[in-house]
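Reviewer 2 asked us to include a model.

Predict the structure of this chain.
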Amino acid sequence: MPRPQETAPPLPVPLALRLCLHALLAGLLSLAAVKALTGANGTGGGAGLAHHPAAIVAAALLMGAVYTAGALNPRVPRARRAAVLWLTALAASWLVLLALSPDGLWAAFPLYFLQLHLLPLRWALPAVLGTAAAAIASFLVHSAQVTPGSFIGPLLGAAVAVVTVLGYQALYRESEHRRELIDELVATRAELAAAERTAGTLAERERLAREIHDTLAQGLSSIQLLLRAAQRGLPAGSPAAPHIERARAAAQDNLAEARRFVRALTPPDLEHGSLAGALERLSTSSPGPRVRFSVSGTPTELPTPYEVALLRIAQSALANTVRHAAADRAEITLTFMDASVTLDVVDDGRGFDPVTEPRADAPRDGGEGGFGLPAMRSRAESLGGTFTVESGPGQGTAVAISLPLPARTREAAA
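Predicted model (structure tokens):
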């Protein structure tokens, strides 16, 4: 039988156990009725009422009807008041049968389980003891001979019922706890696999963008410059001039296409905004210390590899701050100067000695995608920039990267 709502979550009972309980009570009531009709009641001197078989059968039918009504009532498993009223009516009908026939005491065993399951433990234990006491009293009234079994039997049945129900509840809670742990483990594994796939996809996109920029785009740009120089060196009216012009135009078109590929492979943080906007979102979404972002100088449009490198270094430095520094505040500053762009990430954390105390944040896979200082330095140096770290125990940490602006970017800014 389901239990009513309590402070603890309800513990459902398998259908097989409920059917067994129904069958047990039906069998015990049928036994009492059959023995009454056949005159096989084991009564002694105090069993005068037991000579009325019709009354015993009626009491058994009454208890069966009360039990059936409660088993079919949907309010009983959901409301404690309904459960208490049903158990009270069931106990009253059982007491009537108990007064008429000594065979009614066997119905105490299923009553133990109902009381322990439908009532809170602080109410169930007194109810079980009261039921056992009524069964013992019935045995003493109907039997002419008092034996130890008349006391041990009902009490032993009550003890078995209590241990069984409490053991089932403990096993059920343990099973639910393990199920929740397994569900959490499965969900965590799925999230981890999705995160690894996303990280792998982003890393591959970034690698392809860097490769296209460093090989195809740079090569096409060099071809275009060489063709332009060759075009200027040709004499007027040279028959090779139209071919060189078409080759230069083809190189220009393919360079533009390569740059479109690079933009398409840009990290999502840069797809819908500028580098400054991406750094601003990074500072506001950091789970660790308070982070303030500021821009100094006149912002200029940077090449995509520059924006990717600066964003990744800021993410790496801020991740190190969150994981290692135990800082209260951090500051990200993006500075545009005439010939370079600089990114500074400063925190007020515990700091470290960059020489004698290497940080445990180096890339774990040997690639550039880690959060380690060597990976940041590699990014900066791959673009011709410089990378510096200033720190000391108890003095916080300052990470700075400076990238020289390409000539075309300086001319556009001018």
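Residues 346 and 398 are 4 Å apart (CA to CA). The longest helix spans residues 149-233. We have added this to the supplementary material.
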